[in-house]
């Protein structure tokens, strides 16, 4: 069975990056045989061992820190630190990491799923806990269970996942389909169903389904084109979350979704929220020459006041490749942008469009 860690990271890196970026001031090493009295003696004056209150961490903060960012933020950091410590033990700690799948914090739960995804099938020890969650009466817990089984591509969970295809929550069903495909099921049985969930369902379901789609390995051209067809009605949505999810899903399918390029071009319009326009740019970067109809709009974005938009526009033009030659002059100007990230993206795009030797010419 093929594994696709790149696809999984694309789908699930966001929360982990946000949590890691939070940082913390005062992690202190605590020996396993350290007595409580000794730990208390080492606590700085005026500080309280909040980790000990929660249960088992030497993470310490002052009352002022708590007032500034809130107890919940510090609790998250404790949980994240505990999961990352278990990560150092490798897949043999899968069952211990799975204990965090029911943590009160969404960030900690997601970090546990991400760590298990890194280990893949070697983390089969987490399957019993994930299956237990999949049987829960709570839809959120069932969703975590389905995500976990997709993360570890569990070969022992097929029967439970087949039952989950009829779950009342379309998000749970989408992740169950992703888990089955990652465990070896044919993608043509599941890809279009997940794409339909992206295009048609309300609320957060499209975002969850797009993330599930992103981790489903599929090389069947016909299945990819069928899934793209299911996404086309999604461009008629009016909600920001849904439109961003449709654009992301189109990008996941790549050139097989060429029929969706006009929809992506439409999402570049200024009337759409920034998140939707950014998702469209990412998707266009995956379209290759099929993205040529977007070249003029992307070249105009190189003049945006937002460095992020300038960088994404350059990235998309590079993904389109030689078909983006009309944007060469704008990219040469962008290669002198005041923002280093924009400069780098523009130079990469020029190499992709012109080749190394021609790109160096004025």
Number of strands: 0
Largest sheet report: none
Low-confidence stretches are 9-61, 65-71
**What would the CATH topology of one domain be?**
Leucine-rich Repeat Variant
The whole-angstrom Rg is 23 Å
In terms of DSSP E residues, the strand content is under 5%
CATH architecture of one domain: Alpha Horseshoe
- Mean pLDDT over the residues: 81
Output the number of helix runs.
22
Please give the CATH class of one domain: Mainly Alpha
End-to-end distance? 48 Å
Structural topology:
Blueprint: H1 5-22, H2 36-42, H3 50-54, H4 63-69, H5 71-87, H6 94-98, H7 106-119, H8 127-134, H9 139-152, H10 158-164, H11 170-182, H12 191-200, H13 205-214, H14 221-231, H15 240-253, H16 261-267, H17 274-284, H18 295-301, H19 307-320, H20 328-334, H21 340-354, H22 356-359
């Amino acid at each position: 069975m093929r594994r696709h860690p790149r696809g999984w990271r694309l789908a699930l890196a966001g929360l982990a990056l946000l949590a890691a970026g939070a940082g913390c001031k005062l992690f202190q090493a605590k020996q396993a045989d350290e007595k409580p009295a000794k730990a208390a003696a080492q606590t700085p004056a005026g500080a309280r061992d909040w980790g000990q209150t929660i249960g088992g961490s030497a993470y310490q903060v002052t009352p002022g820190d708590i007032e500034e960012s809130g107890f919940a933020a510090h609790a998250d950091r404790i949980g994240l630190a505990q999961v990352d410590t278990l990560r150092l033990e490798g897949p043999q700690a899968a069952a211990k990491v799975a204990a965090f799948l029911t943590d009160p914090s969404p960030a900690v739960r997601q970090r546990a799923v991400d760590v298990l995804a890194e280990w893949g099938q070697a983390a089969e020890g987490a399957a019993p806990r994930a299956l237990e969650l999949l049987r829960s009466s709570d839809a959120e817990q069932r969703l975590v269970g389905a995500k976990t089984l997709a993360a570890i591509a569990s070969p022992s969970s097929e029967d439970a996942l087949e039952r989950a295809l009829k779950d009342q929550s379309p998000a749970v069903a989408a992740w169950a389909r992703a888990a089955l495909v990652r465990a070896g099921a044919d993608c043509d049985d599941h890809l279009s169903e997940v794409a339909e969930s992206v295009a048609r369902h309300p609320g957060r379901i499209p975002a969850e389904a797009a993330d599930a789609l992103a981790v489903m390995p599929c090389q069947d051209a016909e299945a990819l084109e069928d899934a793209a067809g299911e996404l086309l009605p999604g461009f008629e949505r009016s909600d920001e979350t849904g439109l961003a999810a449709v654009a992301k899903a189109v990008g996941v399918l790549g050139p097989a979704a060429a029929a969706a390029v006009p929809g992506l071009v439409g999402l570049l319009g200024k009337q759409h929220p920034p998140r939707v326009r950014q998702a469209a740019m990412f998707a266009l970067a995956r379209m290759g020459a099929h993205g040529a109809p977007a070249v003029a709009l992307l070249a105009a974005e190189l003049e945006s006041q937002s460095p992020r938009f300038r960088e994404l526009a350059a990235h998309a033009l590079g993904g389109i490749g030689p078909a983006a030659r009309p944007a060469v002059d704008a990219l040469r100007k962008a290669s002198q942008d005041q923002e280093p990230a924009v400069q780098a993206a523009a130079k990469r795009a020029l190499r992709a469009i012109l080749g190394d030797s021609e790109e160096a010419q004025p």
